[in-house]
């Protein structure tokens, strides 16, 4: 038998913003598929119409487009296994519900919510299973004629999976190894509801994965308790030979490690938990996103990849291509991964350094424009090259290098007190005369002339350079002094010295 083609899926529900944990699940699916030359399917699980949120589907697609995670088929991508929205697959599911009923693998139950509540009150820890189904109103206890009459009369019902008790169900997990659960602890799960003629997640998920030829199901740890039920469903349909391999990923935990990461943690500590900014149409609440917070998509991908997986070496910064090459499900952790959001900031800093000065300058130009600055691209590229190692976000460049574009109108009091001496005005007037006479205004050209002048005069180098910095920058920050004056040019450098002397003398 030829080796099966790798086919994975990411199947979110359109119920709101995409949580960063969902992004990581999709990323691991993507890395696995690409490494094995396989396909990645985008499926929408929208069987719960009550929880549908407008624009959620578009938001999810836009998030992955920004992150550089590409799908091969599915909603909005097309393909031969559609439709890819579960709400459009009703007739397909009905066919498989009938198959289970005909083969005595499922049964019809008419119990009302009130009847179920009464039974729960009567029996402690009540579970609808092999030990209790015989005392309920279902097709196993009612005559066929009565069942047919109730359905004909439009009586609402559900279809429940008939789980045989006391059987060890083996789930072979690629991360956790063999997981064995006894079927007696499982309830007869509802697979289909006549009220909306739609299946529940469990049935739709199994049928879709089988028909879409999914080879590997890579999903969050929260689905591990459902895995035995899914194995039993594959067996009930006679699909055990083509059942996908399972891999249940570790949870993303709060930064402190105590419990699952939530939006509240992000609000509390000031980091996003969504890839893009989300405007909730129900509450009008706006939640921050990684894109709008200034993160580079490559940094987010690299950061998420290492939350619950490691490449087996000390390498941390990895491109998407490197992640694809190195990814191995067997190197995923079994235990939850603390969401170290500060590490995400560190990754963003690394990727700013890796990107070309031209690319970062392109991202910085709109920020300059917001501050009313129109500067030549060549100048912005030069400044970015000098200053990008000092920031973790492109927007922070303004705080560290605005003086390149706007002359100081006031001077930092603490710096003036510490750096502007009694003779600084006189020294700066002399320096201006020296600078005016420099013909080669390159960094090296300036430095030689100015340092020779300082030596000749016997001045204190620190006093001269500190006053010079205060005059050009307005405070005691910035790169090498002659880098600053070179970018500003001779005319602007002289104008700033003159103004500082007038204001501070």
Characteristic terms for this protein:
single chain; elongated; 505 residues; 11% strand; 44% helix; four-stranded antiparallel β-sheet; 20 helices; three-stranded parallel β-sheet; alpha/beta
Mean of residue pLDDT values: 96
Rg measurement, Å:
33 Å
The helix tally amounts to 20
Helical fraction equals 40-55%
Please give the number of β-strands: 15
Main β-sheet description: 4 strands, antiparallel
Family: Belongs to the class-I aminoacyl-tRNA synthetase family. Glutamate--tRNA ligase type 1 subfamily.
Catalytic activity: tRNA(Glu) + L-glutamate + ATP = L-glutamyl-tRNA(Glu) + AMP + diphosphate
Function: Catalyzes the attachment of glutamate to tRNA(Glu) in a two-step reaction: glutamate is first activated by ATP to form Glu-AMP and then transferred to the acceptor end of tRNA(Glu).
Pfam families: Anticodon_2 (PF19269), tRNA-synt_1c (PF00749)
Can you tell me about this structure?
The chain is α/β, with parallel strands linked by helices. Helix content is 44%, strand content 11%. The protein has helices at residues 20-35, 56-67, 90-102, 113-122, 144-152, 201-211, 227-237, 263-269, 297-305, 320-326, 341-354, 357-370, 377-387, 397-401, 413-419, 424-436, 443-457, 461-473, 481-488, 490-504, and strands at residues 7-10, 39-42, 73-74, 106-109, 158-161, 168-173, 177-182, 190-193, 198-199, 216-220, 245-249, 252-253, 278-279, 286-287, 337-338. A 4-stranded antiparallel β-sheet has the order 4-5-8-9. The protein has a 3-stranded parallel β-sheet with strand order 1-2-3. A two-stranded antiparallel sheet has the order 6-7. A hairpin with a 6-residue loop joins strand 13 (278-279) and strand 14. The N and C termini lie far apart (89 Å). The model has no long low-confidence stretch (mean pLDDT 96). It catalyses: tRNA(Glu) + L-glutamate + ATP = L-glutamyl-tRNA(Glu) + AMP + diphosphate. Catalyzes the attachment of glutamate to tRNA(Glu) in a two-step reaction: glutamate is first activated by ATP to form Glu-AMP and then transferred to the acceptor end of tRNA(Glu). InterPro entries: aa-tRNA-synth_I_cd-bd, aa-tRNA-synth_I_codon-bd_sub2, aa-tRNA-synth_I_CS, aa_tRNA-synth_I_cd-bd_sf, Glu-tRNA-ligase_bac/mito, Glu/Gln-tRNA-synth, Glu/Gln-tRNA-synth_Ib_cat-dom, GluQ/Sye. It is found in: Cytoplasm. This is Glutamate--tRNA ligase.
């Amino acid at each position: 038998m030829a080796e099966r083609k790798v086919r994975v899926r990411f199947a979110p529900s359109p119920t709101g913003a995409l949580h960063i944990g969902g992004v990581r699940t999709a990323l691991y699916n993507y890395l696995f598929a690409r490494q094995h030359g396989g396909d990645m399917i985008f499926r929408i699980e929208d069987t719960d119409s009550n929880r549908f949120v407008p624009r959620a589907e578009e938001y999810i697609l836009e998030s992955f487009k920004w992150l550089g995670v590409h799908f091969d088929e599915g909603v909005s991508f097309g393909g031969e296994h559609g439709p890819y929205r579960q709400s459009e697959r009703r007739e397909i599911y009905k066919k498989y519900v009938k198959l289970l009923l005909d083969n005595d693998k499922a049964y019809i139950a008419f119990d009302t919510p009130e009847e179920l509540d009464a039974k729960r009150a009567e029996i402690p820890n009540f579970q609808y299973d092999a030990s209790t189904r015989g005392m309920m109103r279902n097709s196993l206890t009612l005559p066929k004629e009565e069942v047919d009459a109730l359905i004909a009369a439009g009586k609402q019902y559900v279809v429940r999976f008939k789980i045989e008790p006391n059987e060890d169900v083996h789930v072979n997990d690629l991360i956790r190894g063999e997981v064995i659960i006894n079927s007696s602890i499982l309830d007869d799960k509802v697979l289909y509801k006549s009220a909306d003629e739609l299946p529940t997640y469990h049935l739709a998920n199994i049928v879709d994965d089988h028909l879409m030829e999914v080879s590997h199901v890579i999903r969050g740890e929260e689905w591990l308790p459902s895995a035995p039920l899914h194995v039993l469903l594959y067996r009930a349909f006679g699909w055990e030979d083509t059942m996908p391999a399972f891999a249940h990923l570790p949870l993303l935990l709060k930064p402190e490690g105590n419990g699952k990461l939530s939006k509240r943690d992000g609000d509390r500590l000031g980091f996003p938990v969504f890839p893009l900014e989300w405007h909730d149409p129900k509450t009008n609440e706006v939640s921050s996103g990684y894109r709008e917070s200034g993160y580079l998509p490559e940094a987010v991908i690299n950061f998420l990849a290492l939350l619950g997986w490691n490449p087996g070496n000390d390498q941390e910064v990895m491109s998407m291509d490197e992640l694809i090459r190195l990814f191995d499900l067997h190197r995923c952790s079994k235990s939850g991964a603390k969401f170290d959001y500060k590490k995400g900031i560190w990754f963003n800093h690394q990727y700013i350094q890796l990107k070309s000065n031209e690319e970062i300058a392109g991202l910085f130009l709109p920020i300059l424009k917001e501050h009313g600055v129109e500067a030549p691209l060549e100048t912005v590229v030069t400044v970015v090259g000098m200053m990008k190692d000092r920031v973790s976000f492109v927007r922070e460049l303004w705080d560290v290098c605005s003086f390149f574009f706007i002359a100081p109108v006031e001077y930092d009091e603490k710096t003036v007190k510490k750096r502007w001496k009694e003779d600084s005005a006189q020294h700066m007037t002399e320096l201006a005369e020296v600078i005016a006479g420099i013909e080669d205004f390159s960094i090296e050209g300036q430095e030689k002339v100015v340092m020779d002048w300082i030596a000749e005069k016997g001045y204190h180098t620190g006093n001269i350079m500190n006053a010079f910095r205060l005059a050009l920058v307005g405070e005691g920050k910035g790169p090498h002094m002659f880098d600053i004056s070179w970018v500003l040019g001779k005319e602007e450098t002289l104008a700033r010295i003159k103004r500082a002397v007038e204001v501070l003398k």
